Amino acid sequence: MIDRQALRRDFEAMQAALARRGEAVVGDGSAWARLRELDDRQRQLKNESEALQAERNRVSKLIGMKKGKGEDASEELHAMGEVSSRVKELDALTREAEALFAAALLEVPNPLHETVPDGASEDDNVEIRRWGAPRTDEVPAHWDIGTDLGILDFDAGAMLAGSRFTVMKGAAARLERALMQFMLDLHADKHGYEEVWVPAMANRKTMTGTGQLPKFAEDLYKIEGEELFLIPTAEVPVTNLYQDKILDVAELPKRHCAYTPCFRSEAGSAGRDVRGIIRQHQFDKVELVHITHPDRALSDLEELTAHAEAVLQALELPYRVVALCAADVGFSSQKTYDIEVWLPSQRCYREISSCSSFGQFQGRRAGIRFREEGGKPQPAATLNGSGLAIGRCLVAVLENGWQSDGSVVIPAVLRPYMGGMERIVAK
RNA sequence: GGAAGGGUGGCAGAGCGGUUGAAUGCACCGGUCUUGAAAACCGGCGAUGGGUAAUUCCAUCCGUGGGUUCAAAUCCCACCCCUUCCGCCA
């Protein structure tokens, strides 16, 4: 969430940075449009309430002293009875105003970093760099490759759970596990991340800390009858590991990698990527998370993105990196790079990782803070990125490794994780 | 699921309803002493919001939310979490 002092101090600049996301973000009826008035009202009520409370505290102390000396305090008692009931009324109003302000505050997205390119849609995203030489011959879609090899079973997924669920068998199941292990080993051993294993469900506070709630409830699966949600990404539990903590500046940066399953309702994406395993309700992902000094947020983003890219380079999969434009950057993010892998069957690059810096937005929201020597606690910066989405990676391996005889060559770095298997062939 | 106990500052751990934001110890920071270090001694050491030019002042915070009272860490109610025992179970 945005800084409350900055709301008053830098109103114009903040509004301009928000408006780049689209006029609706700051337009009539937006949370932002109501925010300043709600802030004023809350503070005004609070000031009144505090003045009365100070009076009450002062006289109550006096009553205590008088009683201690055995003196009569009935006059003060009577007067404070009235003050007390007024405090109660004012307090209720103050709390109401505070709740309205807080609710609006949680709906305001992160003001964009100045280096985010302008744009009106994802078509305006800016390509930063490319790696590898894409193959341009005719390659079947991964669902055909997988079905022909007998390793992807879409009917079984539909039978067990419904659409957007898949069963992987044999080499595909093994490949899913191999990718997971390879990625975790790479980040833990070569990139210096501490591996963590976390719950795949999270409560409301945790979901709010990273920004999934309150605004995006329809994207989440909620456990019936409980205040628990299935996580849409490991970002949620891993970042929130530090919620309401004050870290010493010497402990920064914290860098974690984690494997988790991810669950997304995909509300609003009906009809998109309905075939294959590009868009599933449940998928596996290895995530990278940084908790860092705000001064390092942007340089860490470059590092984190490079760590995610290293996975694709090791797998020898061609990709490109794009900077998301103003219209496409997510709610909590101040700047995002997407990594897109080459899918020969579609003859285009498709998202396989999204790396974002959140600045202090999540730190403020989740109470993740750090203290510099002799200084006050301040919100830490957070970042995260997929390193990588495993299902989509498997798609890329199948398509990029496909041979005209129908088999698939397994990237060399994965073979140790595949029991030495060098290629997948039909049984 | 049943029973019992417990949630207080970075940690440990006190706290008859009234000058307690909270004893004490540890940790941490500064100083004295020392060639240096340790020990000892002295001093300091929570967060959030708000007011002021400023030393500073005001309010809130003892798991969470309500309630009683002039006044709540302290009394009452509900909920959450943790520990132990029993039951069930991968």
Automatic annotation (TrEMBL):
It is found in: Cytoplasm. Residues 35-62 form a coiled coil. One of its GO terms (biological process) is seryl-tRNA aminoacylation. Gene3D superfamilies: Bira Bifunctional Protein, Domain 2, Serine-tRNA synthetase, tRNA binding domain. It is an enzyme of class 6 (ligase). It comes from the Bacteria. Belongs to the class-II aminoacyl-tRNA synthetase family. Type-1 seryl-tRNA synthetase subfamily. This is Serine--tRNA ligase.
